[in-house]
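Need 3-isopropylmalate dehydratase small subunit 2's 3D structure for a figure. Predict it.
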Amino acid sequence: MVVKIKGKVFVFGDNVNTDEIIPARYLNTSDPQELAKYCMEDARPGFGRRDDIKGSIIVAGENFGCGSSREHAPVAIKAAGISCVIAKSFARIFFRNAINIGLPIVELKEADEFEEGDIAEVDLENGVVRNLTKGKEYRIRPYPEFLMKIMEAGGWLEYCLKEVGE
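Structure prediction for 3-isopropylmalate dehydratase small subunit 2:
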């Protein structure tokens, strides 16, 4: 079960919208690996093609994932190898889409205390976020058991298929 996530932090600001996460000009495919190449392209050109983003954590400000309701946005993030997104707040539809595809996301009002390159650790089950670089610890609402099961399965569809198969 995915309980603890640890990775290098990449910082983004407030109101990162779905067009910045995966620009519409790249939506001519639904292949996650193709989408991954253009992850965050309009917010930080070339980000999705960096070698050092696998296993990393995006930390952002308010209203992450605002804009259109395209599911491609969290798919691009997950396929790029981002292990978790921490933000002060999320657009509701992005939040739901991320959970549906098994991308862990965490709301943390102190997200702005992280800096680019910090090492973060997220404990979904116990509700703790740590900035290991700065030695700080923050409490968050732990993921309920059913969300942990969705994350473990890899997303909502996979969870449902597993439940039907049992």
